[in-house]
């Protein structure tokens, strides 16, 4: 495109400013309110705080056991991401590189699970987990394991789909050459395909992690006091009579930092992954 | 011989973990859910749901009987969800397309702006939506402060999380959360348009608005078709936004279907009715998806 005319540049400036205000206002509120003393967030909203304090950032760890929820969320999200990505790599390699009976059926089945409402699995899964616990003693309901198992299947279909697209874009000659040189199929996957698909794999990992870190529905039904994740734990700042809004905002900011940092660092890969995998 | 067998078996072996997990977490529960929807499943049977008595189509009849309270509120929830989805998906696509096109070529600060626009997508749902609920508070929130105290647009401080206004609040938060995904996908789609097309158009004397209308928008159509479907399914099934905004039971004007089913199942402890409603919801989504895919693929054939 050539240098755009002034009419276009002015339209662009105005529209992008409006969009920025819409997008960033909540982020501003989160940040500014997290630094306000309690009387400021309990009265009418103020753009300019009466004083700035770091107290909320110290109090959030005492009002609710935030550190414990943090660790739970971390364990659940990392485990489900690692498992989901490994399993997706294997499946995507099979779909991308082999022609076998049932290939189409597999892709269609996996993709169609994307459209099912979470609430549809929640009730049966809840009952199945409870029943497994009662009959075998394997505690899935209320445990981190149950949550990990559930979350990893949430990101699996999308991960497989994206990775198939990504693997397809890697020239087949490369792995054929490796096969001729005596590399086993698994060796080819590990030495040729995986290194070439790093951007796609990173994109899929970010997606998986974000899915698990942000999930609310299953986290609120499938956890108990010891396994509660941040998604549920953040509700603890409201009591019957009071909401400590400055602490809520401070805690929201603290739990957002890991994902936002990771996301912004890796967003380039995400765009690349989407271009290769989803858009085609 | 053994080697050949291994070669045929290998793809299945590679698929096995994915297949087993999908089966365990999605397909088995779905079958169980369908069975449950034919049962009188209340809190007394949680320990052993198979012992619950059969009721045939009872739960379905109750769900669709619009003369009774259960059916009437489900129908209300269905319409609310339809209106909500149409508005939220439409606005998200509009904002996403606008931003993607405006940011297609480089200008100073583009990278920073793009990162800023992606923030709502990166923030965990509960952290972001809880911030919105703070902004929507009647007495302490930013929204009423701006509308009432600063701009004097409203005569008193309206409630945003109760009553009819809750629908507006819900759509606003949902669009805020999902337009960045549209922006991200469309940005990726724009990178596939060959630059030569624009150069040729410019040579022929086409201005920038014409280039957008004749080249960019048509090129984005296939991406938009996938995007609309994905956003439709996510938005229609969205549980997180209303749950964090309103809690376990939403105001009637913003009673989305997933919250409604959650409430019927876990708050009033009627799992059978909840399952029947889930199955009805799934059938509806399947139907819409099938019709949509049929229409878009036919149009694509006509284009070719």
From TrEMBL, chain A:
Protein's name in the database: Carbohydrate ABC transporter membrane protein 2 (CUT1 family)
Pfam families xref list: BPD_transp_1
UniProt similarity note: Belongs to the binding-protein-dependent transport system permease family.
InterPro entries found in the cross-reference section: BP-dep_ABC_trans_perm, MetI-like, MetI-like_sf
Example GO BP: transmembrane transport
Key words of the record: Cell membrane, Membrane, Transmembrane, Transmembrane helix, Transport
PANTHER family: INNER MEMBRANE ABC TRANSPORTER PERMEASE PROTEIN YCJP (PTHR32243:SF18), MALTOSE TRANSPORT SYSTEM PERMEASE-RELATED (PTHR32243)
Transmembrane portions of the chain: 69-93, 105-128, 148-167, 188-210, 244-266
Recorded topology in the membrane: Multi-pass membrane protein
UniProt GO cellular component terms: plasma membrane
Localization terms from the record: Cell membrane
Occurrences of domain ABC transmembrane type-1 (ranges): 70-266
Record Gene3D superfamilies: MetI-like
Location, primary (coarse class): membrane
Automatic annotation (TrEMBL), chain B:
Membrane topology: Multi-pass membrane protein
Cleaved signal peptide residues: none
Compartments where found: Cell membrane
Transmembrane segments: 12-38, 78-103, 115-135, 167-190, 219-236, 271-295
Thylakoid found in the keyword field: no
GO cellular component: plasma membrane
The ABC transmembrane type-1 domain, residue ranges: 78-292
Keywords: Cell membrane, Membrane, Transmembrane, Transmembrane helix, Transport
Top-level division of the source organism's lineage: Bacteria
Transmembrane helix is among the record's keywords: yes
Principal localisation: membrane
Family the entry assigns: Belongs to the binding-protein-dependent transport system permease family.
Protein name: Carbohydrate ABC transporter membrane protein 1 (CUT1 family)
Origin species: Kitasatospora atroaurantiaca
């Amino acid at each position: 495109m050539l240098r755009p005319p002034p009419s276009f540049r002015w339209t662009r400036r105005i529209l992008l400013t409006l969009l920025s205000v819409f997008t960033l206002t909540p982020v501003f509120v989160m940040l500014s309110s997290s630094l306000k003393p309690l009387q400021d967030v309990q009265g009418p909203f103020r753009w300019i705080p009466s004083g700035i304090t770091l107290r909320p950032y110290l109090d959030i760890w005492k009002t609710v056991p935030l550190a414990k929820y943090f660790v739970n969320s971390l364990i659940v999200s990392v485990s489900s991401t690692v498992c989901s990505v490994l399993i997706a790599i294997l499946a995507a390699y099979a779909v991308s590189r082999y022609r076998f009976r049932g290939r189409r059926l597999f892709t269609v089945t996996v993709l169609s699970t994307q459209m099912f409402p979470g609430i549809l699995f929640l009730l049966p899964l809840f009952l199945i987990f409870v029943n497994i616990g009662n009959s075998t003693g394997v505690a899935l309901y209320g445990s981190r394991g149950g949550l990990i198992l559930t979350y990893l299947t949430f990101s699996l279909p999308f991960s497989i789909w994206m990775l198939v697209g990504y693997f397809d874009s890697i020239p087949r000659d490369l792995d054929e050459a490796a096969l001729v040189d005596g590399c086993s199929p698994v060796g080819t996957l590990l030495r040729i395909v995986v290194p070439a698909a790093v951007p796609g794999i990173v994109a899929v990992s970010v997606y998986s992690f974000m899915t698990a870190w942000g999930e609310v529905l299953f986290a609120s039904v499938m956890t108990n006091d010891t396994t509660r994740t941040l998604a549920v734990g953040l509700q603890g700042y409201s009591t019957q009579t009071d909401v400590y809004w400055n602490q809520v905002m401070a805690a929201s900011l603290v739990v957002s930092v890991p994902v936002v940092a990771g996301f912004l660092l890796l967003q380039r890969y995400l765009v690349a992954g989407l271009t290769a995998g989803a858009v085609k | 011989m053994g080697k050949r067998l291994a070669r045929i078996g290998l793809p299945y072996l590679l698929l096995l973990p994915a297949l087993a997990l999908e089966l365990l977490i999605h397909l088995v529960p779905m079958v169980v859910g369908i069975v449950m929807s034919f049962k009188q499943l209340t809190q007394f049977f949680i320990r052993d749901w198979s012992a619950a008595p059969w009721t045939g189509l009872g739960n379905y009849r109750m769900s669709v009987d619009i003369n009774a309270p259960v059916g009437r509120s489900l129908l209300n929830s269905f319409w609310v969800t339809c209106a909500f989805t149409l508005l939220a998906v439409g606005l998200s696509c509009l904002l996403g397309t606008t931003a993607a096109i405006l940011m297609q070529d480089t200008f100073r600060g583009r990278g920073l702006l793009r990162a800023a626009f992606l923030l709502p997508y990166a923030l965990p749902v509960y952290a972001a939506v809880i911030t919105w609920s703070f902004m929507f508070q009647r007495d302490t929130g930013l929204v009423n402060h701006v509308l009432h105290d600063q701009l004097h647009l409203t005569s008193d401080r309206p409630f945003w999380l109760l009553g009819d206004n809750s629908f507006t609040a819900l759509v606003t938060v949902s669009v805020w959360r999902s337009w960045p995904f549209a922006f991200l996908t469309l940005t990726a789609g724009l990178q596939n348009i060959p630059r030569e097309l624009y150069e040729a158009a410019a040579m022929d004397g086409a201005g920038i608005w014409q280039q957008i209308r004749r080249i960019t928008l048509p090129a984005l159509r296939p991406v938009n078709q996938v995007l609309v479907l994905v956003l439709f399914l996510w938005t229609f099934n969205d549980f997180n936004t209303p749950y964090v905004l309103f809690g376990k039971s939403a105001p009637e004007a913003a009673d989305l279907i997933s919250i409604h089913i959650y409430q019927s199942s876990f708050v009033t402890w009627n799992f059978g009715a909840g399952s029947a409603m889930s199955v009805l919801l799934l059938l509806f989504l399947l139907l819409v998806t099938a019709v949509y895919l049929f229409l878009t693929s036919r149009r694509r054939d006509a284009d070719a």
